[in-house]
Amino acid sequence: MKPIVSFTLFGTQMKYYVGAERNIDDINKMLPDWEVRIYYHSDFVFREYLEKLKVKNVNLIDIKEIKIGGKDSIHFPYFWRFLSFLEEVPSIVRDLDSRFSEREVSYINAWMNSDKDYFIIRDHPWHSPVPSGLFGMKKRTELFESHMRSEEHTSELQSPCNLVCRLLLEK
Q: N or C: which end of the chain has fewer CB within 10 A?
């Protein structure tokens, strides 16, 4: 299996749909050996835009029937992209409203050639301690899976950043 760059797509803001198109194209050029994956809920996206994305080199996954922490996934769209961490392959989660750069690709390649399990880019003063849209893991961990599937971590009060921070603190 290829390593994964994972995104979540939902809502009506066009910047995410434009971001999906641009990121698919950019990642396929800059990281051609990686899979671009977008998780979406078929009831909460523009269908005509999905049709545009389907002709690109992307794996689109409808999470409509998936439950996270025993609850319907529609309540936790920011967590969808983390589903790629439940596979036995390196995975990076990103935000659709940001773009890949050559600098980031060099960081990713250095990480992939290292013995480090986690990937974090925190290069802006506004970034949280562990930006949930600039994070990666090389392999599936039982600790992350138990956190992901726990109702405690998928409550409305928990953010993806909290989930990632807790994982790293407990490691």
A: N
Average pLDDT value for residue range 124-138? 69
Tokens found for residue 66? 């998936």
DSSP state of 3: -
Confirm if 111 and 104 have CB atoms less than 8 A apart: no
Report the relative pairing of strands 134-137 and 118-120 from DSSP bridges: antiparallel
Q: How far apart are CA 28 and CA 33, in angstroms?
A: 8
Give Cβ neighbours of residue 81 (< 8 Å, ≥ 6 apart): 6, 7, 8, 39, 93, 94
Residue 54, classed as helix, strand or coil, is helix
Tell me which DSSP letter residue 93 carries. Answer: E
Predicted TM-score of the model (pTM)? 0.86
DSSP H or E run through 67 = strand 67-68
What pLDDT digit, counting tens, does each position of 28-57 carry?
A: 999 999 999 999 999 999 989 999 999 999
Q: How far is CA 41 from the centre of its chain?
A: 15
- Is residue 98's pLDDT more than 70? yes
Helices in the chain by DSSP H: which ranges?
14-30, 47-54, 102-112, 142-149, 160-170
Q: Residue 41, by phi and psi: left (phi above 0), alpha (psi -120 to 50) or beta?
A: beta
